[in-house]
Amino acid sequence: LSQKPILVTFAKDEDSSVSLPKPPANLAEVRKVSSARACLFRRTSQGNFLSAKMVPPDQNEEKLDSEEPAIMSNLCRSNDNCLAEQRSYTPFNDESKQLICNERISRSEREDFIKGTAGKFLFHLRGESDQMKKPGTSSSWPRSTGWKRRVTGLEDETRINESEEEEIFWRIKILPILHELEKVEDNVENLCLACTKLYQALNEGSMLGKRCKRRSELLKTLYKLVDIDSDPLCLKLAKIILAMKVDGKNLLGVCKLAFKICRNEKNDSIIQNDGLLDCLLEILRTEDLQKNNEALLYCMGAIKFMSGNAVLLNEMVNKGAVEMLLQLMRQINNIKENDTHFSNLGHLLVQLTATLRNLADLPPARRQLICSGAASELSVALEQRVNDKDVCTYIVRIFSKLSSYNDFCAALADCSRCYILFLALLKKHQKQQDLVIRIIFILGNLTAKNNQAREQFFKEKGSVNTLISLFQTYYELDLNAQKWYHERGGEGKNHPKHPSEAEDVLIKLIRVLANLSIHPSVGAALATAHCVVDLLVTVLEYKSVDDCEELVINAATTINNLSFYKVKSSAVQDKKLHIAEMLLKLLMSNNMDGVVEAVRVFGNLSQYREICDFIIQKKIYKFMIALLDSKNQDVCFSACGVLLNLTVDKNKRALLMEEGGIGKLVDCLQDFGPADWQLACLICKTLWNYSENITSAASCFGEDTDTLLVLLTSLLDEELALDYSLDRDLRDYHKLYWEREFKPVAEKLLDRIQNHHSFLPAVTITPF
């Protein structure tokens, strides 16, 4: 050091309770002290010198039993306490504290302390001659015994004061409560009250954790009470024992105790008020995964039971449980399959993922899961544990819940291997309905709004074949269940309202196909897949909308999507007449959603002459005209689409005069025109085709002519037609369709009607 250290700089403080020694007069001796201080400071920067790892290797100490490492730690922590208390007793500066902190304790003195023979915990440092015997230490420790006596005197004085205070606190505050616990073993209520007082006293005296010197005595008293059959008492005991930072078998035992308490949901109310959750979360945060994996298992199991309670679940989120659990999962994911701990950690992962599933119900937890990269971490765990059905089920349940939200769907879709992984799980667990249905549901969510996800999944090897295989499996299961139902005399009874397990899988599976078919290239490819179309038609054949509404409607929706694609070798086109016959049943049902889907399919299929003839033959066109009165915008749009396709054929245009078709089209234009310019355009195109050979507006449109003229005139007036009170974006959207789709057709139609209203010659115009 560049300057000489001054050990005593506060001589003016005459009231100090410590008698300070005088500095040595010998200059050489001071230099030795300076050298020692420099060495000690270097050692201080490396950590607590009194920790077990810092004991010199030549001190061949005997191994301690399971409780003794805690006592070794007590020595370290008690030394820290000495330093904290020293501020009120000594005028030393920070460097002096470092000197005290770095003094070493001999093996014999440690043994005396452990055996309880250290008296007032007076520690005496070794003499110079003892240190000289040890190789490699002579340059690190001062040789001046005078210097050492001065420092030791201060240390001893501080420790005496602290030990006396702790001893007094123990005798006055703690010991009476321990006696109380030993005397009232039969009175559980009094024991609970005593435990509450004990925890408060320990907290007040800063004796929680491993710093309490009589920790063993305290724990022995508590362990004697654990066998009493009382969950409220065991909860109090568990909280104190955990707060004392036990380890090894003691930690495992108290975690089992906490597991037993939390397993009974009747204890939720007392758990909420006793702070056990904090202790358990601290274990998850601090304990070594491989060393204490069994204790962590029971700890995690207890937390999982807690997560079934809404109050405790919210408390977990507020205390940062989501990030703790994900951090623990990252540690587990780092353990590879060839590791001996891999199998056992699977049980821990089950409890962990079950807890995360419960947490996923809360919006704040969902946001944390999305922001913390849960999608990729869960995907890694799922891939590593593909053979563990329980782990797979819980992770898939988490995905199933979170995939209902767009942000998580986007994050999951970014996991490049998620589709391969889901397909592998579907193949491996094909008959595990609870797992299959959730994976299919996730795929449905992923492909619902993301065109890239549709393409990626479709391009995965065997994706469509896997879906077809599942379809066949669950179709057969449903068919067998239906036969069994009828054989049992259930034919005359009402069918269960809710879908069966097999039907539920089919519903969600068809939804995936419907979503995939939205992508242009994927939809075109699926339209040519006869096996896919055959299965969809099969659903319409064997299942009525009354049996399972959602299944039949989903099948019709998917057929509608596929019928949109006019591609070579289209399976829909090949089976269009058979499909039309199946849809006729749906069209005649009392289910309006089913009717709408059937009409939509007819809207696409009516582009083919054979289907138009079928519509005329079965008088379906009358039904379409009747639907114009439904006052339902979607129904009117679909029905008008069918009528438009019929009017392309000159021989079928007169059908619009039946059932008051013209008047109903005009009513639809009046009702929905300003709100739906696409529908208005469709109506105008239908009337345009219908009036191609017009000679007189009155004879063509009848009593609706004047109404139609006034309506078209007003709808073509931008100021009247477009609502400028709407949001700017919505107004721009309406204006776009008004200008591009409605206006060109409506202007031509209005011009035609006006020209023929005065019996002017007709002009031949090509139909739309």
Question: What does the model show?
Answer:
This is ARMC2 protein. InterPro entries: ARM-like, ARM-type_fold, Armadillo, ARMC2. The N terminus and C terminus are likely disordered. The protein has 768 residues and is mainly α. Among the domains are: 130 residues, Leucine-rich Repeat Variant, CATH 1.25.10; 178 residues, Leucine-rich Repeat Variant (Alpha Horseshoe), CATH 1.25.10.10. Helix content is 67%, strand content 0%. The longest helix has 39 residues. It contains 40 helices and no strands. Helix 2 crosses helix 6 and helix 10 packs parallel to helix 13.
Tag the structure with descriptive keywords.
Leucine-rich Repeat Variant; 768 residues
Approximately how much helix is present in the residues? 55-70%
Q: How many β strands by DSSP?
A: 0
Under the CATH scheme, which architecture of the domain at 431-487 and 498-618 would be assigned?
Answer: Alpha Horseshoe
Q: Predict the CATH topology of the domain at 431-487 and 498-618.
A: Leucine-rich Repeat Variant
Span of the ends, CA to CA:
100 Å
Main β-sheet, in a few words? Answer: none
What is the CATH class of the domain at 431-487 and 498-618?
A: Mainly Alpha
Please give a quick description of this structure.
This is ARMC2 protein. The chain contains 40 helices and no strands.
Architecture blueprint of SSEs:
Blueprint (H helix, E strand, L loop, with lengths): L26 H18 L23 H18 L8 H8 L5 H8 L13 H5 L12 H39 L4 H17 L10 H9 L7 H13 L4 H16 L4 H5 L3 H11 L6 H14 L3 H9 L2 H13 L8 H18 L3 H9 L2 H11 L4 H14 L3 H8 L4 H11 L4 H14 L4 H9 L3 H25 L13 H16 L3 H8 L2 H13 L6 H15 L7 H4 L1 H12 L4 H14 L3 H9 L2 H8 L5 H15 L13 H12 L4 H14 L6 H5 L3 H11 L2 H4 L6 H30 L11
